[in-house]
Amino acid sequence: MDTGKQFLFAFILFIIFDLIWLGFIMRDFNMRQLAELGRIEDGKMSILYTPALLVYLLMAAAVVFFVLPRLGLEASVLEAFLWGGAMGLIVFGVYDLTNLAVLKNYPVPLVLADIGWGIAVFGVVTTILTKVKVG
To answer: pLDDT tens track of the chain, all 135 residues?
Structure first.
């Protein structure tokens, strides 16, 4: 798969997985954790879509330009997941630990859950990109 297709596919995968994770699985948890900090209107998180899309572009770039080049064509599922997960740990770790360091009352349970999610989503997206061949 060429780089442009990989990038677009990664971008779409990150959005889909985050919509499921943030919009359904972790919605109530995140609302409780971010009650003091989040853009909450009428009991719902109010998202600024331009910055959110830029985040997904950066996440796709991290996988396509920094993780995939380290993996050979014959990378195992485990190898792909671990390298992707390492990138997720770095990206989400920098974000969450910076928030913990500078924001008052940034919740530790959110830090742990979010870093875990970063490892998982980057690992899964990287694995899919190494195993799926899109023409």
So the answer is: 799 999 999 999 999 999 999 999 999 999 999 888 888 888 788 899 999 999 999 999 999 999 999 998 789 999 999 999 999 999 999 999 999 999 999 999 999 999 999 999 999 999 999 998 765
8 Å CB contact between 11 and 121: no
Nearest-CA neighbor of 111 among 103, 17, 61? 103
Cα separation values, 4 from 7, 10, 128, Å = 5, 10, 16
3-state DSSP assignment of residue 47: coil
The verdict on pTM exceeding 0.85 is: yes
